[in-house]
Automatic annotation (TrEMBL):
Signal peptide: none annotated. PANTHER family: HYDROLASE, PUTATIVE (AFU_ORTHOLOGUE AFUA_2G14860)-RELATED, MONOACYLGLYCEROL LIPASE. It is an enzyme of class 3 (hydrolase). Keywords: Hydrolase. It holds the Pfam family Abhydrolase_1. Residues 37-259 form the AB hydrolase-1 domain. Its EC number is 3.5.1.106. This is N-formylmaleamate deformylase.
């Protein structure tokens, strides 16, 4: 079923590489396209295949690479693997280097946006632009992330036990049945250790000190119907970034699932017109 799904995606190939001492799997959309490529970093329980419907339209004119983050999908997963923000950022940096990506755009959603922030802050000159989509802003001295760990673990257990689309539909209003089925298919590939330790990192690791070091044009996209990034928090982030701007989209935290058209329009305007 996985192979059939990926085979239906035009201009896409799956591959593995070694980065930061581990094996990473990634999907490569439109690999021969010119222009700055996009490295799309998913969130805490979103393997690469679940982002194909977003990568496809983005890849109409650009190369788009979507990795399975460590501990997820087809990437390496084993006991004792590190899941700190530094680990993820170094993975992404070495993926950029290993694939020869020159001045990529880094687009990160949720945890992926936190990774993008750390990568760009610690590696000046590597990235051309940043798109930060609803990053968790929790950390020391800040309000906790609004989605508790138990929600992730309950969903993971249900998917691992063969939950049906019908059972998940009330939990994912607005999602299409194929999107729900794809999530159920890939969610069990996410390591429980990876989920647990990454969720803890939301509260133990602070991304705000990194913001002044984001020296490239940066777009913050936040969900108006979620509690992850408030309008006040978005304004605070923009004040701290040297070249940042923000846009709110009428959607929940999984913005492209709720409002793909407005999401793509916002990103296209930023990438094409600055």
């Amino acid at each position: 079923m996985r192979a059939a799904h990926l085979a239906s995606v035009p201009h896409c190939r799956g591959a593995h590489c070694l980065a930061n001492g581990i094996r990473l799997h990634y999907l490569d959309f439109n690999p021969d396209a010119a222009g700055a490529p996009i490295l799309l970093l998913p969130g805490i329980t979103s393997p690469a295949a679940t982002w194909a419907f977003v990568a496809q339209p983005l890849a109409a004119t650009r190369r788009v690479i979507v990795p399975d983050l460590r501990g997820r999908g087809l990437s390496e997963s084993r006991a004792g693997l590190g899941y700190a923000l530094e680990d993820y950022a170094q993975d992404a940096l070495e993926l950029v280097d290993g694939l020869g990506l020159r001045q990529p755009v880094i687009l990160g959603h949720s945890m992926g946006a936190r990774i993008a922030i750390r990568l760009a802050a610690r590696s000046s000159g590597v990235v051309s632009r940043l798109v930060l989509v609803d990053p968790p802003l929790s950390g020391p001295g800040r309000a906790p992330y609004p989605t508790p760990l138990s929600s992730y673990l309950t969903a993971h257990e249900a998917a691992s036990r063969g939950a049906t689309v019908e059972a998940f539909r009330p939990l994912t209003p607005g999602w299409s049945d194929p999107q729900i089925a794809l999530r159920l298919q890939w969610l069990p590939t996410c390591s429980v250790e990876a989920i647990t330790r990454s969720h803890a990192g939301f509260h133990e690791e602070d991304i705000f000190p990194d913001l002044p070091f984001l020296d490239v044009p940066t777009l913050l996209v936040f969900a108006l119907r979620a509690k992850v990034v408030s309008a006040d928090a978005a304004s605070e982030m923009v004040r701290r970034m040297p070249n940042g701007r923000a846009i709110g989209i009428d959607a929940g935290h999984m913005i492209p699932w709720d409002n793909l058209d407005d999401f793509l329009t916002a990103i296209a305007a930023f990438l094409d017109h600055g």
